[in-house]
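**Backbone geometry record:**
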Amino acid sequence: MRERIVRTGLNTQYSRFSHFNPFLKFNLYMYSTLFLKSITKIFLGFGLLFFSVLTQSCTVNKLHCGILSESRLRESTDDMRNYLVKNDGTKIYGEKIWWNYGILAGKTIFIDKQRFSISEIKTYRMDEVTFVRYGHKYLERRVHGKLNAYISDRYRSPDRLGCFHYIQQGDDGKIVPLPNTKVLLKAVEDCPKAFQMVNISMKKLNKALNKNSKYIIEVFNIYNKGCQ
């Protein structure tokens, strides 16, 4: 046997490789399975993200982006600095605030060099504008009062600029999508003046917005001022 090994070195190497072949096959199978699982998770994540955006596009963006984006709401308070507000109410002050959300970016918000999970920070204020957490992202507040209004996720379709709108009853109420005037009608039904302004056809509403770009914002203001 020893002589055969010397004479047939190549065959011996092949024989040794064949001897360990079942183990190599098992390892290759395990690594390929893990690789395929990782790729599947990544594509599944992107698929869910795309489906989420697509779903929102179908249910939230029926109203034109301009109904709330005429101007940013700069809320003047005694404290004009930029800060984050944690879930327990603690404020963290700084200069620059930004946040990331995505499969690769994670769910993180930063203030200068400090880093927090989005789930830890319920609101933040930057340049006199307030942003409120909704899921794993933040909405910009455009109207503040008894009935709040928010805007987020601007995008450009072939024929117009669009965005998603939301409303909230008070600061502690549930934030809900504003896909159409029916949702707003329900929210202001106890204010006849505001209700009448919204209880019109989309054609008439668009005409009203063309004449007065702040038409919908005025509906919120009337409601928030006690229906005056």
Summary: Confidence is low (pLDDT under 50) at residues 1-20, 43-60. The two ends are 104 Å apart (CA to CA).
